[in-house]
Amino acid sequence: MIKCVADDGSAATSDIVSAINLAAQRAAANPTRPAVVNMSLGGPPSRALDNAVAAAVAQGLPFVVAAGNETQDANNASPARLAQVITVGATDINDRIASFSNFGNKVDVFAPGDTIVSASFQGDNLGAVLSGTSMASPHIAGLAALIMGQSGKLTPDALSTQIKSVAITNAIAGVPANTANTLAFNNAVPVGQLQQAVGQAGNAGAGGAGAGAARNRRDVGELSETFIL
Length: 229
Fold this sequence. Notes:
By secondary structure, this protein is of the alpha/beta class. 39% of the residues lie in helices and 15% in strands. The strands form three sheets. The protein has a five-stranded parallel β-sheet with strand order 4-3-2-1-9, with helices on both faces. A two-stranded antiparallel sheet has the order 5-6. Helix 1 (13-29) packs parallel to helix 2, helix 3 (133-151) packs across helix 4 (156-165) and helix 3 crosses helix 6 (206-223).
């Protein structure tokens, strides 16, 4: 993780640009290892921010970016407006576009982002329930890491195409006509089979299931590096 935002959520553009450059440098130092950047941040149009992200993507480092929470066209937000990034909108538990989510032709895919159980900056062992496209984009960054952990390093364009190709289409209610209706899916197993497996894991006991999950996380982590900004 590269921290460039204060606990109150504020950050200077120069600090964000420095973090982007640092992620790009680290990725370049190990060019054969897959890597992806999650940006759960953004703001008004910024040429400096856009240029930094575009340069890193041109180097071959994929970026997953929150679409923004202003209920407006993502073309009005940086770096979400960049065609080179994977821009993520948010849905709620009923598979509707979240009331706050940005939209438009720059949004590539949607993921859950409303009332998400997350970590808290207030303590290492504390959690929080949060909403925002900043909760949705890490779903896609994780999916990107999983895909590259299984298939190897991909270019940003190829990774974006892969994520969209396995997404479920026309499943989200309330999506504006000019916005792609694509809900992220990992294409691993049918949903019914996945639910059954989760239920069986729960019945088998948290200890065994947790150990298996930890092994899976290590396996993916050894192959794919995720930079969180």
